[in-house]
Each structure stands twice: as C-alpha cells, then as structure tokens.
Amino acid sequence: MSDFELTLKNPVWYALGETHKKFSISYHGVKFYDPQICTFGAFEDAGNTVEALNEYSQRVDRFFLVSQNKIPKYDTNFVVLDQKIEGVQMVLDTLETCKIIETIVPLTHEHIDEIYDLVWLVMPGYYQKRTFEMGDYFGVFKNGKLVSISGQRMQTNSFIEVSAVVTHPDYTRLGLAKQLVVHTTNEILKTGKKAILHTTKGNAAIKLYQNLGYKITRDMDWWYFCRK
Which fold has domain 3-88+223-227? Predict the structure, then answer.
C-alpha cells in the first residue's frame, strides 16, 4: 500500500502528523486541530477517545471526529453525540478540462471576514476564521462582492483537500463553483500532490465533482459532538 493510499484511510490523522503538524493538539493519543484553526480530530484507537474528548471539549463546545469505519467511544457525562454525518471521500483521477471565463482571484487575509460570512451563510457550523491558514483560497467577485469561493483544507505530504466550495444563493447556476474547483485542483496538481475532497452522501455536488474527474473512494464518517 502506498503512503498516499494509507493517508486516505485517516486523512485528519495524517494531516496533523505531517503538513499541519503545527496546528496539532494531542490528548491521550488522539489528535485534534487547534480549535481556532479547525474543530476536527482523528484517532487510531477508539479506546483512547473517551478521555481525549472530555479534555478537548473544555477548549471548544462543538467539534468533529473523522473516521472511515471506526466508532469513537465517549462519556455522556461530558459530551453528547449530536449526529453522525455520513460522508464520502473523493479522489481525483484525471481532471477534465473546463473553460474558465471568470476572473479568479487569490484571496488574502484582507478577505477573511468575507470568506467567513459567505461560508456561514451557505454551510454554517464548522468554518473558523483561521481555517483560512490551512491552505490557499480563491474567489470570484461580482460588483465588488465576494460571491463564490473554493479553498484548501487538510494537507499531507501526498495530498491536498479541496474544500469550502460555496456560492452565494443569488449567484448559483452560473458555473462559478465548477470553475473554482478546476482552478483550485490545478493549483494542487502544480505542487506535485494528489487532489482529494470530502462531501456528504447524497450531496448534489457529487455529480459535479465526478464530471470533473473525481471518483468516490470510500465512506468517511463525521461524528459531531457537543460539550454537555
């Protein structure tokens, strides 16, 4: 099994041990992102998650554990499982060509508030302002307003994840997301790494990603916990 294939099975774990090690916090052998960056964690041994979740929950009131097929253990006196979100992992095979007609702008720290507001408008619940530090972000502006973005999130020595693909409701069906995903993917490929992404099962965007050359590789569950 290649290093790349191995990291795909536990992407958060390997990201926190490699490219994003500087953001890593560890409790009892369970790895978490600094909650100011991202509220994700991952584990190898479910026997370690009880105490780890108790301690991490003292730093942030809502967070995720990400796992392909392992079930985390937790203490209901300290944390509550809000929901198990069933997702899929997709890996780029061969990127399909797409004509980019929009002006795609690299986003900077000056755009952090705009990015945050747009993500929370479309997909509330997980994005932090410092999530921006996890990778590069790109956007499309209309009339001086940021209306569509795509960025990079988890990273290892072998892959970079496409994430935060959102478009303002007033600007959907214009092909903005498609062009941004292609642009972001091309930027990843320039680094010599593989491009991957995650989304929820049944998401209408899966068809878009498949048309661009991404293929579903495995299920990936997102266990969403809340501090009690």
Answer: Aminopeptidase (3.40.630)
